[in-house]
Structure formats: C-alpha cells, structure tokens
Hints:
mainly beta, 48% strand, globular
Amino acid sequence: VQLAESGGGLVQPGGSQRLSCATSAFALSAYSVAWFRQAPGKQREFVAGVDWTGSTTQYADFAKGRFTISRDSPKNTLYLQMSSLRPEDTAVYYCAAANDLSIQDDSYPYWGQGTQVTVSS
C-alpha cells in the first residue's frame, strides 16, 4: 500500500510550506493518519496526527502553534500546513496510516516515500 507525499522543497526561515499526502489504495478517512519526519543522523519522530474519526488531533511540542494537520475526505488527501519554519525543521517528512493514532512510528503499517523539506536562507 502506497501513500504519496508532495509539496516539499526549499523554504526560507520564517516561511510556510504545505505538504500533501494522497493515496488511491484506500480511504484515508477510514484510518488514523499522521506525519513523521526524519532529519539526517536522527531518528524518525512524530509531528502530528489525526484519528480516524477526525475528532482528535495530536501534535509534537515543536509543532504546536506552527503546524496544522488536516484531512480533505472528498479529495482523499492529508495535509500538513507548516508556518514559521526554522532550520531545525529541515527533514524528510513522511505520512503514515494506521488503525489507531499513535506517536510511535512502528504502529503504522502504511507509509509514503517521504518528501524533503529544507529550511535555509
């Protein structure tokens, strides 16, 4: 099962970027979905997630107030709107899907290939 991320690229510090994640294999609205990221030399970490009902969202501390996760069910697409970006946000960003919302990456059986976000002047 494949998820496909898009929207990565080079952005200046303080700028904004919106990532998208789509799949044709299943309805994202039937799953809990999340964004993770992995910076060079670091472990993959949870960024934000929304449960399958859409009623519960969860954010990493570094994402609170700057990142917003949302899901467009008719488009079957998951988004991550990022603002006030910092150089330390530079990473490969992945979307993932699972039955239950979790901050642990090994709880997610379905993953995308990742999209690179580089925050630099």
